[in-house]
Amino acid sequence: MNNKEVISLSVEIPQRGKIIMEEKIYLVDLSFLSRGEGEIPFSGPHLMDSIRKAIMSSDPIMARSTELNEISVHPFMPKDGWRAWCRYQGMHVSNGERLQSKVVIFSEEVFNVVRSWLLKRPSIRVGEINFLLGDVSWTELNYSSFIIKEPSKSFRLVFMTPTCLKRSEPQLCYLYPNMRTIVSSLASIWNRKAETKCPDPRTMGTWASLSLIETGYELCTSRPIQLQGNRYLVGFVGWVNYRVADHPEWSREDHNMMSAWAQTLLRLGELSGVGIARSIGFGKIRYSASRSGAHFL
User: Fold this and answer.
1) Residues whose CB is less than 8 angstroms from the CB of residue 239 and which lie 6 or more positions away in sequence, other chains included
2) Burial class (CB in 10 A: 0-12, 13-18, 19+), 76
3) Kind of pairing, strands 285-289 and 154-163?
4) Nearest-CA neighbor of 267 among 189, 153, 211, 167?
5) In this predicted model, what pLDDT tens digit does every residue of 231-248 receive, in sequence order?
6) What pLDDT is attached to residue 295?
């Protein structure tokens, strides 16, 4: 097993003679070896189910707690990336093929339990095929290491796995990138855990809806993807280019501050995911800032 050596930036705030350490995010990289050949379904729910069972066997009280909502798995990705989800009817794997996954954990207590389980090299089952766990490594990240001080004037968001953004009406979702919803939900995640708080989620969402302008996109709607049982989910995948535009609601100084926070939150979103069912592999995004002085067209 490899434990990556990381230099992380922690926020230490003196308070009544004590040092308060910022909470960490644990990023676990996993490698699996296929022990069969055939088609497998979307792997996220199966990976999460194995983790839940491991926690249940170790600590039933923890397994029933809200801490489990703070785990997010990254599913096995098809070879041709996000475009595969547009026609997805299963993913073919070969016997002996190596597949990569990630698990993101927002709780040290849960991480310790999951790490102990992973060190036993368990196998998991996805569809009709078993996968043996190979390499495991983990990185500890501080929230402060995500903070962007000089925001980019333009950036690209790639929606790597099907993404479905919840509407206010039950059972309905947006099948396009609604930046108000994305940024405000990430602000809520950030403010629950980080020592340094961002502006309130409603304000962040309003700013994003007025100041993040689409300049190009390539999107498609995924085929229905089966969860567990008879439940299915449809989402969108693809990329969108954004330009940050001034708006009279904010001064230049406030506008730059909001832009920096929005892009900070999108960096966090690369780990947490966005939208419905992000804990089981949906809504995985990749944020890419433009080069200095350049713009995405």
Assistant:
1) 82, 156, 157, 158, 159, 217, 218, 219
2) buried
3) antiparallel
4) 189
5) 888 999 999 999 999 988
6) 42
The span from the CA of 113 to the CA of 52, in Å, is: 11
pLDDT tens digit sequence for 247-269:
888 899 999 999 999 999 999 99
To which residue do tokens 């069972």 refer? Answer: 53
Within a 10 A sphere around the Cβ of 33, how many other Cβ atoms? 16
Tracing tokens 């929606």 back to the chain, one arrives at 159
Nearest-CA neighbor of 137 among 7, 50, 30, 272? 30
Distance separating alpha carbons of residues 212 and 214, to the nearest angstrom? 7
Domains in the chain: ranges and CATH: 2-143 (3.30.70.1890), 147-289 (3.30.70.1900)
- What DSSP assignment string belongs to 116-174? HHHTT--EEEETTEEEEEEEEEEEEEEGGGG--SS--SEEEEEEEEEE-EEPSSTT-EE
Residue 80 has pLDDT above 90, yes or no: no
